[in-house]
Design a protein that fits this description.
Layout: E1 10-12, H1 15-18, E2 22-23, E3 37-39, H2 45-49, E4 54-59, E5 62-68, H3 89-92, E6 96-98, E7 105-108, E8 114-115, E9 120-121, H4 131-159, E10 163-165, E11 169-172, E12 175-178, E13 183-185, H5 196-205, H6 207-217, H7 221-233
Antiparallel strand pairs: 1-7, 2-8, 2-9, 3-5, 4-5, 6-7, 10-13, 11-12
Length: 234
């Protein structure tokens, strides 16, 4: 798992190198067409749960919430527009990103969104961020703040021993797909694992709601299967 999952040429945004760079919004999300999972922050659990199972992927001892977009590698069945489906902030923020652990704005320099001819300027003639870029920076800061709280949440789940290997298995046409590379919250142990003080603290932070949204989302595996079957029949 990487914070720059589909960035082909990630570089720090620098006024010297990118003084004349302009941004023009593109239609669709073709940059995310080859992935089958995408990271989520906790505040996205509820809207995402209608369309995707929310699982936890282990990476370097950390647990990262992800939306399961497809059951097989190589892409998903959401199309380039993701029309009618929840689009995660991780996908929408492209081609910008805030490098984790550093206050460094990254861009995909190869993105078709950038040119020196058309679109919104990133820097003014003095090399200062334009209002457009200031808006982007504020947006990235908001995403980063919720991401940090989300990682605090997943660490708390780990400490409480509430993350267990997924035992979800999908059988279709004589074939079996196991989702045992992912983790889920042990719903049967959830409330019993928290003290009264922790329940109140988790409620205030939104973590109780996030957990219920995650548990509810597991039923969306059927939606992923439906999309896969529909794509195969076309």
């Amino acid at each position: 798992m990487t914070e720059l999952l589909f960035y082909n040429k990630p570089v720090p945004l620098a006024k010297d190198a990118h003084q004349n760079l302009r941004f023009q919004k593109q239609q669709g999300y073709s940059h995310a067409s080859k992935i089958n999972t995408v990271p989520l922050s906790g505040n996205e659990f509820f809207p995402a749960s209608r369309d995707f199972p929310i699982m936890f992927a282990e990476s370097g001892g950390h647990y990262i919430p992800v939306a399961l977009l497809a059951l097989t590698a190589g892409g998903h069945q959401l199309g380039e527009s993701w029309s009618g489906f929840y689009t995660p902030e991780f996908v929408k923020r492209y081609p910008f990103a805030l490098a984790q652990g550093r206050d460094v704005v990254m861009i995909d320099e190869s993105a078709p969104h950038f040119s020196e001819n058309e679109g919104e300027k990133l820097f003014d003639h003095l090399g200062e961020p334009t209002d457009f870029l200031k808006g982007v920076l504020q947006y990235l800061d908001q995403i980063d703040a919720v991401h940090k709280l989300t990682m605090e949440y997943t660490f708390a789940l780990k400490v409480k021993g509430l993350l267990v290997k997924s035992d979800i298995e999908i059988k279709r046409q004589g074939k079996s797909i196991k989702l045992d590379d992912f983790y889920v919250v042990d719903g049967s142990e959830f409330h019993g694992a928290l003290t009264d003080e922790e329940i109140l603290d988790w409620y205030k932070k939104g973590w109780i709601g996030w957990t219920y949204a995650h548990l509810h989302s597991i039923g969306s595996v059927s939606e992923v299967v439906k999309r896969m079957v529909s794509a195969q029949s076309e």
